[in-house]
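[User]
Um, tokens okay?
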Amino acid sequence: MRTRIKICCIASIDEAQLAIAAGADALGLVAAMPSGPGPIPDARIAQIAAWTPPPVATFLLTSETTAQAIAGHVRATQPSTVQIVGHVDPGEVAELARLLPHVRRVQVIHVEGPQALDLIPAYAPHVHAFLLDSGRPGAAVPELGGTGRTHDWSVSARFVRASPRPVFLAGGLDAANVMEALRQVRPYGIDLCSRVRTDGKLDVMKLALLMAAVRDADAALYAEG
């Protein structure tokens, strides 16, 4: 199966064009966050989401924590998918599914240890996919993504095997380590931000090298069976 690729921290239509031309399946649009790279105004998120051609998906990364607030954020920006970046109350995600049944929901799980697996049954009934990242939501200034750090892929591999939903892998991925990440974890897709950028801007060469590495990894893993 081909690994899906989501390019996050898209800052403009120009960057969206670059990512799509390179082969991205999805674009991540980062709204206001307590920390981390890439936040852009909601008006620009709405502009990029409206411009993006199908079948490319647009993910709104929201730090809102209640169903009503998340739904309002989605209505203001009109993405195809909402990515909930914090470990919010699962009941709020259930209510969001009721409020916006046609918007796809992705729950971020920050892998700080094996306890991440305990969150699967709480969220799985209410989301379409998970995304494993390397944030620290409990830090004094919460880290909810874009750290550029890898996490324990052995935990992520266990999560993928246990999850009834597709799983994206994020956190410090680049052309040098993506083959090993895919071999260990076997995610449905990967998510990239800082490691395909130079001075904060999407780097076409880094992006091309990453895409080639993913294609090579997919071919090698298919051959291995």
Observations:
- The two ends are 11 Å apart (CA to CA).
- Helices lie at 13-22, 42-51, 67-77, 90-99, 120-123, 153-162, 178-185, 204-224.
- The chain has one domain: 4-223.
- The domain at 4-223 is CATH 3.20.20.70 (TIM Barrel).
